[in-house]
Amino acid sequence: MSDELNLQEILQETENDTLKLTPKQTKILEAAIEIFSEKGYNATSTSEIAKRAGVAEGTIFRHYKTKKELLFSIVTPMITKVALPVFANKFVKEVFSPDYDRYDQLLRTLVYERYQFVKKNLPFLKIMLQEMAFHPELKEKLQQQFSQHVYPSFKEKVEHYQKEGQIRDYPVESVIRFVMTSIIGMIVTRLLILPDAEWDDEAEIERTIDFIMYGIHQS
Amino acid sequence: MSDELNLQEILQETENDTLKLTPKQTKILEAAIEIFSEKGYNATSTSEIAKRAGVAEGTIFRHYKTKKELLFSIVTPMITKVALPVFANKFVKEVFSPDYDRYDQLLRTLVYERYQFVKKNLPFLKIMLQEMAFHPELKEKLQQQFSQHVYPSFKEKVEHYQKEGQIRDYPVESVIRFVMTSIIGMIVTRLLILPDAEWDDEAEIERTIDFIMYGIHQS
Amino acid sequence: MSDELNLQEILQETENDTLKLTPKQTKILEAAIEIFSEKGYNATSTSEIAKRAGVAEGTIFRHYKTKKELLFSIVTPMITKVALPVFANKFVKEVFSPDYDRYDQLLRTLVYERYQFVKKNLPFLKIMLQEMAFHPELKEKLQQQFSQHVYPSFKEKVEHYQKEGQIRDYPVESVIRFVMTSIIGMIVTRLLILPDAEWDDEAEIERTIDFIMYGIHQS
Amino acid sequence: MSDELNLQEILQETENDTLKLTPKQTKILEAAIEIFSEKGYNATSTSEIAKRAGVAEGTIFRHYKTKKELLFSIVTPMITKVALPVFANKFVKEVFSPDYDRYDQLLRTLVYERYQFVKKNLPFLKIMLQEMAFHPELKEKLQQQFSQHVYPSFKEKVEHYQKEGQIRDYPVESVIRFVMTSIIGMIVTRLLILPDAEWDDEAEIERTIDFIMYGIHQS
DNA sequence: AATGAATGAGGCTTCATTCAT
DNA sequence: AATGAATGAAGCCTCATTCAT
């Protein structure tokens, strides 16, 4: 698993940060992510991380003052990535293009993209999910990311389609919730609740989009 | 908070169990539920539980052989309650009555009932959610409860309405997922993600039902 | 095992003591002897004793103020019994009779009698042996018993036979040591070191007496 | 006492083992041996060992995973040493030489050597003796050592002298038992039962050898 | 930068003993 | 006499963190 993760890419706070990770540091992070996501932060000992990383116990504390700092060095950058302004960054220009006059295309892209992202970064996200419950800082940071980078462009689009009469006249917040809830619900079911079930990912995604579309679409 | 919880009622496995909790035991359970849900199982020390419960630390271990047994004595009964077969038990006779020929009534009752349940038992459920990630036994028990008590009657109803042409022709599993995902999504948003936001519960529930209805309804 | 032990008989300090043991007390003693001898005094918990005795934890402390008092109530009477003045009490009159002019008869009786005693009371003796190492009171009491009741009559007999030229002219203490050491060595080998070996008890006892006889006998 | 013990020498399993003991580890072992032998394994707390060793309690567990492992690291090597094949190693060549045609020389060396050994390692041996009663592994290991390294060469010599008509025609096992029992009996009396008595070690050893000789010697 | 021995606070658990019933 | 819930001190052990090398 660890070789699939491109830590260099994922763990940098912003894209400008030049993050130099020594090999040992990379090993430590890989090990920490693995074990944190298997057993939880509190049930993981630094000595176990050191062992799995193949470094001495003290080495961890050379790079991270405390165990908590190690956790945050994993989770914090991920928060930014999770809330990665899908719309804003990648689609903002295309979305109002003639090709996107039907928003199911937008939705489809969104779903596929997020699904791949979650699949690739599941251990990170498990840790984040668990620890956000006990570290309000994390929760706040994510919410702030959301309201700054996701919500505005999401809202803009919803209102756009509402004006065009394509989306039902719910409050924008509700629409966003319906959409996200359905997508996240599918992903969670797929990857956490029933990871061993046989799934036709494509079909299931299509059905989910269908469901959302009918649910919010102005008939 | 603790006085709202009726432990006697909640913590008994089946309704026939005569569960005698001594006062001290009740105090211990209340304290444990509070702190587990605040900080998580692993971050909670038995000495802290004892202190908050106002008992000696040894007293905990008179009633629960290990800390884990204490956790399970809290979570296990809740699993049964969570999967409480709303349909089967309460509505099975009414649901096919003429009054329920429109299934939004069914849905409405389901949502209201589950919402109240979660609201009342939030600390329990937080603990359950967190710990299921690290105790496969718990996850398995919940899944088994679900497939035995929830899924069958849910499926029956969905198929009933599909035959009548009222529900779109998705796989039953997908329909169930859409419905549950939307309900759970609303509840989670309301109680965990934005507990401090101003919500019009009634209106939000109605909208959520609307969304589900349009989403799965055969137009 | 417990039914073979006649606690009433064994556990009374002196023969005049009228020792009334309630049924519960007897159960407690039986259980304590069993477990002490299996696991040692320190590794035995009072709750385990209570459980095996079928009484409540508190009941033990109704009869014995402390766990140590329970131990001593088992070991102390046994000390008297162990040092039971074999010679003095039973044989003093016979030993100088014409039948005993050869002291091997004396020895033979001594060995048989002590062997049976040890065999019957092995658990007691194991406890005594173990705990004497850590409770000087016990060791002192045994030594005092020995020098008061065993040593004098033993000495008398040894000197008697030395005067008659039948026992070699070693210091009496040495003769006693040779004799006891050989007997105890045989018993310990038989019952503790090789309890599962096939032994011809009779033959082995005879050989041991032979060995002692040749060893101390004035040829 | 502790400075008399050469732990490095004693605690190594075989002479090839390069046993590196850090100073702290040595302190821990010295303290453990002292207190174990004074109060017994179960009555000794790790915190007391730490205190007497002048280290933190945690340090003990850096070197020995459990308290039991600490015990075994003390007792196990001693088992080998106890069964040290005196005959085989040191005398095997000389014993059949003309000088040894009288086996009392052999016996004398054996007794002296073992006596010195016990005297020097008394704390170790006390611990071993006590704990063998509750740890069958230890007992089995000692018995195995005995039957592999002591018994064969002992037997060989006994049979040699029996063939020469110098040792009485008892079963070899009995002869060995008589000899060992008498030696051990003397040592135990001297060092454990009457450590404060005035003894003429030389004379007592000579007398014991005498006793054994007469006891087993074919007159 | 890296190591790993050492620390000591704190965790879970056991246990002898007490006491109200 | 008997019970057994309750106690709290103490036991073994783990762990994040420090520091000399």
TrEMBL record, chains A, B, C, D:
* Gene Ontology MF terms: DNA binding
- Residues in the DNA-binding region annotation: 45-64
| Stored Pfam families | TetR_N (PF00440)
Q: Which residues form the HTH tetR-type domain?
A: 22-82
Q: Keywords for this entry?
A: DNA-binding, Repressor
**Matching PANTHER family:** ACREF/ENVCD OPERON REPRESSOR-RELATED, ACREF_ENVCD OPERON REPRESSOR-RELATED
Write down what this protein is called.
Answer: TetR family transcriptional regulator
The upper taxonomy is:
Bacteria, Bacillati, Bacillota, Bacilli, Bacillales
